[in-house]
Amino acid sequence: MTEGSRGRWLIGAGAVAFVLVLAFIALAREPVLLDAGSPEGVVQRYLQAVSDGDYNAAFDYLDPDFYEGCDATALARSAPDEPFSASIEDEEASPDHPLVAVTLRFGSGGGPFGSGWTSYEQFELVRVSGSWLITGEAWPYFSWDCRKDT
Amino acid sequence: MAVVALLILGAIVVGLVLLIRKFMDRKGPDTSDGSDVLPYLLLAVAVGTAGFSLAALARAAFPAGSVVFDRAGQVATALAGLVVAAPIAVYLWRRQAKRRESFPASGGWTVYLALIEGVFMTTLVITGYMLTNWILSDGDRTTWSDVFVYAAIIAFHEVAARRTPPHSDSADLPRVVGSVIGLIATATAATGIVFWLLDQVYATFSPQAGGEPLMTWIALLVVGGPVWFFRWWRPWPAESSLPRDLWLFVVSVAALATAIAATTFTVIQTVVFVLTTTDDAAGHFEFLPVAVSVGLVALLLWAHHRSRLGSERTDSVRAYEYAMTAIGLSSVVGGATWLTALAFGGGDLITVDSGVVVSAVIFVLVSLVVWWRFWSTAEAAPRDVEAASTPRRFYLIGMGVVMGLTSAGALIGALVVLFQMVLDTAEGDTLVVQGALFVLSGLATWHLLRENANDRSLIVSEDVVTPFDVTIVCSHPGMVSTLFSDKARLRVLYRGDDEGAISDKMAEQIVEEVNNISSLVWVDGDGFRVARTRI
What we know:
- The complex is a heterodimer of chains A (about 150) and B (about 525).
- Chain A is an alpha+beta fold.
- Chain A is about 35% helix and about 20% strand.
- Chain A has 2 domains: about 1-30; about 35-145, Nuclear Transport Factor 2, Chain: A (Roll), CATH 3.10.450.50.
- Chain A has helices at about 5-30, 40-50, 55-60, 70-80; strands at about 85-90, 100-105, 115-130, 130-135.
- The longest helix of chain A is centred in the first third of the chain and has 26 residues, at about 5-30.
- Chain A is elongated, with a radius of gyration of 21 Å.
- Chain B is about 70% helix and about 5% strand.
- In chain B, helix 11 packs antiparallel against helix 12.
- The longest helix of chain B is centred in the middle third of the chain and has 34 residues, at about 240-275.
- Classes of the chains: A alpha+beta (about 150), B mainly alpha (about 525).
- Strand 1 of chain A pairs antiparallel with strand 1 (about 65-70) of chain B.
């Protein structure tokens, strides 16, 4: 094997190794798990459950009074078909009536030519029996017809 | 399932490589001209797919503060793109690298580099700006990995381009594309910064102003400035090239038109304020920071790019000047039509705002100045050279057609209104706008076509001579053969006596009489006779 071809093989092997390392990091890396007792932690778990398609778990994070008459199937009908990621934005939160701001990124989002888009959403939370729950018209805005007081 | 998916992906890759080999390599490397546009386009698609897939994989590995994401889905999508595109990209890259050794002037290489520059430099500038904006201000959180991946792709191609530089006629195209991207980002940032500065000054006496973010513009300048510097300001390999001259022309025209528009708007608003307005000055001149910043940056851009076009009256300079002449003439026609409509149109129920009239008058005056300034420069140039130049012919004929069609359209509109009046179905329409547009654009058409006709009379045209046969029956041909054009196929038949010798004077008369047409020439003691031969 000549010096040049050995160099090319090394570059190729290095590139493949680099891709595998990136894939490994991506798969092994867990998102930072926020405190389950905080409003941000509740929103994170709600969004993760929607992302995973576990709508029963997601529905448990919604305020039962506000969503009375609805169930997880209504949520499932409105959930996005494509994968998304979410990051919590810095917002000033009132201790009594916290609002959690989130940027949702849909699709591939590969630069200016990617098919992705972002959406800025706010989640309103209310304390029920010592736990924070999501209330108000929360993303993904599923059919409000199911609610009793509509 | 995974094994099946991998087999399918592998089959796609192998199939594509085999197709490329079958249809692109069948002639052998030395039988085509080596432009290789199609393989380079395929390479660009493969590199683009692989590059964006790699960036997506890096985003999945370093997700920039995301608290929720679909890791498996992102990784699977990115890996699928890489598995299909990367082997094809590697195969085509190596194939084309070998081909460039045989065909260094490959046009496909230039096209490929320009495409990669356009796609990945744009992406780099946008992601770099987002990252810098996030660092410097409170912009949206973004990932740093995109910047590294796209910068690495740009750097890789920069090294390859320096190792085997493009040598085709448009070899500067990739650098010009980079210059376009850098200039747009830098000019936007510079305009934003100047606007911010002026806005701060304006905010001291106007409560409406202020509050625009400076850091956003600085972030854009930090990213766009180096790109523009690196691509535009480095020495160019040649004094002049088509892509660069074209870009200089576009920026010179666009920047000057923008600067004139910003200045005209400012003058109009100032005159309107002095003559008519009852607003407070601060509120009326709220536009000033925007107009001044846009005008100032446009002026600087024009000064720089116009100077690079050079002072000699080349076709690039002519194209720039005739484009400005065209803008001036169109504006004169449009503005004068507007003014006529203000003067004679409308009903008696409302009075025309004097501010609008002032605007129209200043617009027409500025347009006239622009048109006259550039048209008189063209008129001052040596007419015979100017008349034959492509930009002038393009201007006269192109604008003549546009103005002629405008005039025809206006005439149709006028006739429609006229018939409506006759049939009593007109709904308040008047003939003023259509009539004015018909007359003004008609006058412009007449001026342009008349100039074009004058130019044509100045252009020296050579008669096209097709090959012709001449048979001369004489005693001695003299010098006649040297007087015919090189298209003549001459045959001389000797009479065998001394009665038909051709003198020099007779030779000239014979050539004139034949007039480049196939003929039979009889020479005897009485002179010569010419008969046309059958074709």
